[in-house]
Amino acid sequence: MSAIDPLVQANREFAQSFAGGLPGTPARKIAVVTCMDCRIDPVRALGVSVGDANVIRNAGGLIVEDTLRSLAISQRKLGTTAIMVIQHTRCGLSTYDDAEFRAELEAETGVAPPWGPSPFGAQEDNVRTAVEQLRTSALLPYTDDVRGFVFDVDTGLLTEVTQ
Ligand SMILES: [Zn+2]
Q: Which of 9, 48, 59, 138 has the fewest other C-beta atoms within 10 Å?
């Protein structure tokens, strides 16, 4: 029995009442960049529904090459015009040193990680850096409505980070 089997089973039940038929262009014209952390459920935490937003997730909710690729597609092909960056308290990235992790990976596998360094410091500073990266990106046509937040995984509250 795989850990995946119960999820496939749950999907059978989910599909019974699935409405479908929505367009692939987000109705609320918003993209959310956030961490892959298992304690964050962007749809419920932000009061959006299926069909409302593009949600782009990675470890840390960082602005890396693939985040920009996804956002460029989101804005230029799917019509979004606003970006919410949400990082969070007690993020796993703050629990280890990125340079050491990269060195460990290379030592154990003989393969240098193909992704760049992910420096991760004080939470608010990380969010400010991410917002600044987006506001200055030449790849994105809509950079006025970009805002950054920290999600508290213990209270469920968002706090906006001012630039
Ligand atoms: Zn995280």
A: 138
